[in-house]
Fold:
Amino acid sequence: MDQKMWWWLCRGVVFAAVVLTAVGCGGGDEASAEAAGEDAVVSGGGSDTPATTDTPKQDVGQALAISYDGPPAVKTIDEAAEVVEALRKKYDTTNVPDVLTPPYDREGVLEYAKAMKAFQVARPIDLAWLEKLDGKSLEGADGYNNQRVDNAARSLRSRLADYFPGEFEHSLKYTRVNLRGNVDSTLQTLRIGAEADPSNDGDLRNKLAREDRVQMYRQAGRTAYDLAVLGAALDRVVEEDGTDWADKGRQATELLATLEQKAQAAAKLIVPPVDLGDKKLRVIAEEVLSRERYGLPPRVRLIVNAPIRKYDRTLYTLDTHSIHRGQSVWQEFQVTTIERAEDGRHYLFYHDLVKYEKAASQTPTGKWLLGDRFRGSPIVEENFEK
Structure:
């Protein structure tokens, strides 16, 4: 090993090969899944599948192969001094990986695992080299230089034997604690949705009728699963155990499946609002929503669910020199449509239709316009006409 390569290794990168294997999911390679061991929690599908069947993606660091032969052989006292100094820099406190904190991602956790594994492999080798170092036997050794190298080596041996392990274990311990805490907290969020009472229509509506809430629970489940996989990968790399990552991953998978079942049950409780039966407003709404400028998709059904109301609002604006008073007067009513969304499901969409009598100069007056539009809950086909 030449001196240039040695200095590169001492700056903190001592791993030669990293083998990361993705474990097959949902009907994938059974041999690979079995090889992953108990910590590999196999689920079906990936995160790109539709939301109704979405389950987390399985991706585990399978193995980390480290090749490190230790410091190079030295012949002179000056070479020994250079190697000892390189080792001192390598094991400086600033080079111990910091405790990982959220947000977590696969690359960040595996980079942390590689750095920790590198130190884990190198430390006993480097410590043994330091213990065998005998400055008096090297070329160019004299009283001063020999004492200088021996003192530096003795100090470094003490650090590697007594202090560095504590810093290493602190970083690893609290990284694992943080990961575990995040898994537990996201699992708890998922449980709120997954444990909705299926015999209580009100509980299902409150927790799972709104699509944004269901998506929040889904995301919590995926996050919990992904973090459990990363925790298992980290433990495998640094050869730690005692954390039930596999069980936490299975909990996430099972709770997600339960959530989907109950979300489907909650969707069956969603019905359109009551149609007022106002034919005049229906004609207005059909014309406005069909305008090309809005680019809205075809409607399965349109419901006029709120009558015309009139609003009068005074607005004040402040500039550098004065206060300006403005007035807006408008009429407004609401309609709801049932439309097929990009994910293949049907949703309720709510629209405010407005007609201004007085407004800011840029706002058209005297004609009906589309105001706010937002997507509501999914609705099953059997409820379209209810």
Remarks:
- The first helix runs from residue 3 to 10.
